[in-house]
Amino acid sequence: MKIKSIFSILLLSAAVLGFQSCSDSDSGSSAVNITAPGTVLSLVHEDSPIEELNIPMGELTSYMISVKTDGGWKVSVPEADASWVHITPHAGYGWDALNKDAVNTRAYVKLSVDYNEGAARSTQLTFTTGNLQAVLRINQAGKGSGSDPIESVWDMVGKLKMGYNLGNTLESNHDLSNSWFNPSGPGDWQTWETCWGQPQTTQEIINAIADKGFNIIRVPVTWFPHMDEEGNIDEQWMNRVEEVVNYVLNANCYCIINVMHDTGARGADRTDRHCWLTADIDKYPENTILYQKIWTQICERFKNYDERLIFESFNEILNSSYSWTAPSSESDGAYEAINKLQQDFVNVVRASGGNNKYRNLAVTTYSATGNADAPVNAFKAPQDQVSDHMYLTIHSYDPYNFCNNNSGKAPDGSTYDYNILIFDDDCKAVIDGVFARVNKRATECGIPFIFGEFGALDYEKSMAERVKYAQYMASKFKQYKTAGLWWMNLINRNDLTTTIKYDANHIVDESPIIDALFQ
User: Fold this and answer.
1) What is the C-alpha to C-alpha distance for residues 388 and 445, in angstroms, rounded to an integer?
2) What is the band of 61 on the pLDDT scale with cuts at 50, 70, 90?
3) Three-class secondary structure of residue 86 per DSSP
4) How far is CA 499 from CA 19, 455, 467, 469, 496, in A?
5) CB-count burial class (<10 Å; 0-12, 13-18, 19+) for 463
6) Rounded average pLDDT over 357-373
7) Residue 28 pLDDT class (50, 70, 90 cuts)
8) 12/155: higher pLDDT
9) How far is CA 48 from CA 43, 66, 67, 68, 437, in A?
10) pTM above 0.85, yes or no
11) What does each C-alpha distance from 465 to 42, 69, 459, 468 come to in angstroms?
């Protein structure tokens, strides 16, 4: 194989000059820029030695490779592969690598690869210092065999523009103990579907959403009010779910269905199965039986649907205390329960036959959050019998005090107002942190990610500031080659306009938000 050296004296000089902006000290000790031949050379990724890196077919952002050497170094890539493997810098100098207390602050290579539309491919990066050599083999997966009828999750995410949540509809679930709420039964979908204030979904409503440019629609579904004691789903309810799914597919959009308010924070006065599915390792043996039965029935109904239908494991699952604050320890049993439940989800779907063997699936974190390290790092991608058909979904209303209204009256009668009124650089920094954290974990797992919910939902805040948020989120989706689904209330489902009447004093034209998302 012909090797093209990317290192030259001129390039090395430029690299050295570039690195001089870094600190000249490791662990507080004085050091100079080391360019002489080194006596040690090894490669490290994520704090572990590495000789081989397996990469999915999709175009993830980057991998950082630490060069552990005490001398000047260079790296080369085969000429034939330079078109799809990208590295920077191509040369550098060493650090006090023999000192166990020293920290590498200067010898790194940023590696990225292009999306692979063909067969699996491999190459190698060759690092040298003096007479020493270290090789990093790169293996990138390719498209599956022709027997795979479902497009890869990478292709799917690459086609997404922007998404929309059909909220407060099939996930609506009033407590039957309320005397005023009297559906005729679990199959009375008309009463259940409209009990949270939205009209019955029609093809015209879905078409109006799609006509704005949204090409993926999430249809949240709550199942517990529509099951008998043995977990059998009412036939009329399942028929209605299928009808709405067909509306979405008829509009040529992707459609996501899930298990919605079977998870979440249980109301203190609820006596039904509200939020029965918890991240509780002690209840896992009991919960997974019903959870798997629900998905078995969903899978049977939809197993012959095409690649535009996506299954999402569950919504915002919480622990036995129904805490929205994720456990701080990554070893907490809640995380173990989540990972086990999602493995069960994948197993059930794949075993159900039809197109479900390859269907693209969405899995998530504790409370679907991406704003803290522990729940993101504790997430484990389930093992799958097929490759490139799974993605990570998270929800982000960050910063919380900008996206939501956080003011009111405390139990002691005092008032509080934590609202952020201006979308500024501090807000951007919070969002940057969420994207970086989620992207890092998704990359480690070898899967893409999307934002299954996001939005600046506080309609009392300035439209100009909410537009800034929408524009910034759209720019971040483009940066990370992904997409997000806004949480409802951009289109009035009663008259199909963009004017939303939140209350008598707040009638808001949401069209500037839509325009900002698609800029």
Assistant:
1) 11
2) low
3) strand
4) 54, 17, 16, 19, 9
5) middle
6) 98
7) very low
8) 155
9) 8, 10, 12, 11, 19
10) yes
11) 49, 49, 11, 5
Residue 52 has pLDDT above 90, yes or no: yes
CA distances from 344 to 225, 297, 382, 442 (A): 22, 14, 9, 20
To which residue do tokens 């909220």 refer?
167
Closest-CA residue to 369 (of 427, 434, 299)? 434
**Euclidean distance between CA atoms 179 and 387, whole angstroms:** 50
What letter would DSSP give residue 20?
A: T
Token pair for 158:
């690459």
pLDDT digits (tens, 9 = 90+) for 280-293: 999 999 999 999 99
492, 205 in Cβ contact below 8 A? no
Rounded CA Rg of the chain: 26
**Local confidence band at 297 (pLDDT 50, 70, 90 cut-offs):** very high
Q: Which helix H or strand E contains 69, and what residues bound it?
A: strand 63-69
Scanning the structure block, which residue is given the tokens 């907490």? 332
Give the residue carrying structure tokens 């300035």. Answer: 462
Q: Which residues of 233-269 are buried (b: 16+ CB within 10 A; e: fewer)?
A: bbeebbebbeebbebbbebebbbbbbbbbbbbebeee
- Rounded distance between C-alpha atoms, residue 138 and residue 78, angstroms: 12
According to the model, what pLDDT value does residue 378 have? 97
Mean pLDDT of the chain: 91
Predicted confidence (pLDDT) at residue 50 exceeds the cutoff of 70: yes
Residue 356 corresponds to which amino acid?
A: N
> How far apart (Å, rounded) are the C-alpha atoms in residues 71 and 436?
31
Angle at 267 between CA 266 and CA 268, to 5 degrees: 110
Q: How many CA atoms lie within 13 A of 461 on its CB side?
A: 25
pLDDT per residue as tens digits for the range 228-287: 999 999 999 999 999 999 999 999 999 999 999 999 999 888 889 999 999 999 999 999
Using an 8 Å Cβ cutoff, are 390 and 448 in contact? no
Contacts of 181 (CB under 8 A, 6+ apart): 174, 175, 191, 195
Question: DSSP 3-state assignment of 202?
Answer: coil
Taking Cα atoms as reference points, which of 350, 360, 358 lies closest to residue 390? 360
- What mean pLDDT is predicted for residues 211-230? 97
pLDDT of residue 271: 87
Q: What is the dihedral of CA 204, 187, 168, 160, to 10 degrees?
A: -60
